[in-house]
Structure to design on (478 residues):
């Protein structure tokens, strides 16, 4: 995680300088420096940093030892800043590398060296000032996205299908800013937390957004992310559905599915199960027994896709989309990994077969990188942040974990990952989805999505009368 090491280096440098200032003040005010101390001759001191530390340990006592060790830390931190500056690309790399070099040289040649025990009070202030200036400048780079990490390996991506070297994948085209129409951001909402089924935690991703922005989608839950202990994993009981399709995408962990048509199986890292409820189906989703016994990580998405009135009575269907079938693409500059689950992006089709025309993809965006996607004009456009921080749209509206952005009309969707990310998520992880609006009335209650209240009443009656299928004799969840 280059960007995390970079942040740590800078924080370490600042902390080292402040501590050096405090220790130096104590040394200057209260400690008498022996004439034979290596720091008595600043021009020769740069080559004798390690010697100074060893001398302090042997002869200088606690304060001088702490002072010398922190001085060495300062040199190493400045060197780290220099190296990390060189490893960045973009307008800030030269200045950042220069700041690191200044810190290294200043440690050896400043008239009142950072490491010189005879340094006066003003030079100590100079040291702290340089650290603050360096930190402020780097914060500015992060905010503006001037400096971006080199593309290549997507490190620490979610287990949901990744690659060793993203540069070997087919590339999405670079969009022409003069001819493409950037979609504006209409709204950004934050998903509240809740529980589903037998008690597993979820975020209600579509909460608070008007249905006209969501059509043809009905509902989406981010399941987890949660680390279960032994005996804690939970799922759902057997329950019915009618009138739409459920899409369960597992990012981390394993889920077991079974339905009344005989469909089902294990959904694990990067796999998707696509169930068309249609005229009616019974199903169950739960962790397998082994995972219940051991506990473990659980993280996934369940999306409900509406069906038009003339297809709500279609026979139920089950699709098992293994992780290896997902279409993998790279952004035009290699800064983002795109997994196409359904629909198509720039002529690259995903494996999911849909009744309602949609596109669904999961993108991992490197810190500082931008992803611009061609998007069908007749589709709506939504971006949901699974993890990380970034911005969306031409005006760079901020978005973070658990937030949903709805876009207006146009033929391009853009998003950028912040250069600094959360420690638990080194990249910006997003779902990008859109579809052709159905434009029909929606009557939704519980597990049924129909067009009228009369059809909802019929669905409940059909379920009570056993017309939506039968639970198999050899079923999970006994």
């Amino acid at each position: 995680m280059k960007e995390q090491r970079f942040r740590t280096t800078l924080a370490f440098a600042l902390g080292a300088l402040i501590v050096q200032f405090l220790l130096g003040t104590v040394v200057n005010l209260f400690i008498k420096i022996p004439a034979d101390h290596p720091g008595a001759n600043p021009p020769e001191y740069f080559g004798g940093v390690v010697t100074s530390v060893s001398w302090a340990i042997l002869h200088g006592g606690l304060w001088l030892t702490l002072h010398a060790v922190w001085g060495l830390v300062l040199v190493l931190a400045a060197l780290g800043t220099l190296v990390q500056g060189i490893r960045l690309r973009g307008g800030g790399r030269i200045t950042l590398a220069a700041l690191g070099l200044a810190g290294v040289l200043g440690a050896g040649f400043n008239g009142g060296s950072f490491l010189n025990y005879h340094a006066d009070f003003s030079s100590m202030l100079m040291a702290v000032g340089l650290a603050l200036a360096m930190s402020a400048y780097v914060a500015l780079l992060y905010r503006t996205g001037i400096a971006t990490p080199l593309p290549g390996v997507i490190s620490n991506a979610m287990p949901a299908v990744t690659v060793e070297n993203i540069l070997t994948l087919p590339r999405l085209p670079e969009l022409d800013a003069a001819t493409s129409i950037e979609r504006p951001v209409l709204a950004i909402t934050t998903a509240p937390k809740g529980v589903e089924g037998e008690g597993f935690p979820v975020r209600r991703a579509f909460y608070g957004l008007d249905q006209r922005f969501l059509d043809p989608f009905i509902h989406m839950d981010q399941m987890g992310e949660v680390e279960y202990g032994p005996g804690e994993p939970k799922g759902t009981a057997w329950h019915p559905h009618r009138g739409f399709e459920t899409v369960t995408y597992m990012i981390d962990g394993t889920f077991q599915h079974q339905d009344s048509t005989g469909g089902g199986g294990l959904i694990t890292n990067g796999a998707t199960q696509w169930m068309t409820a249609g005229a009616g189906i019974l199903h169950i989703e739960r962790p397998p027994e082994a995972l219940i016994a051991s506990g473990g990580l659980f993280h996934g998405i369940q999306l409900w896709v509406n069906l038009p009135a003339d297809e709500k009575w279609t026979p139920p269907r089950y699709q098992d989309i293994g992780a290896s079938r997902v279409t993998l693409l790279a952004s035009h500059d290699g800064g983002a990994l795109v997994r196409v689950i359904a629909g198509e992006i720039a002529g690259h089709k995903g494996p999911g077969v849909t009744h309602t025309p949609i596109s669904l993809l999961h993108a991992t965006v490197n810190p500082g990188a931008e992803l611009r996607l061609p998007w069908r004009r007749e589709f709506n456009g939504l971006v949901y942040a699974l993890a990380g921080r970034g911005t969306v749209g031409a005006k760079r509206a901020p978005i973070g974990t658990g937030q949903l952005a709805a876009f207006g009309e146009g033929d391009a969707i853009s998003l950028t990952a912040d250069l600094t990310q959360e420690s638990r998520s080194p990249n910006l992880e997003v779902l990008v989805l859109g579809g052709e609006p159905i434009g029909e009335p929606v009557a939704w209650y519980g597990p049924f999505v129909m067009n009228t209240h009369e059809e909802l009443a019929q669905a409940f009656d059909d379920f009570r009368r056993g017309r939506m299928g039968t639970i198999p004799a050899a079923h999970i969840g006994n």
User: Anything to note?
Assistant: DSSP finds seven helices and 28 strands in the chain. The chain has a mean pLDDT of 78. The longest helix spans residues 49-87.
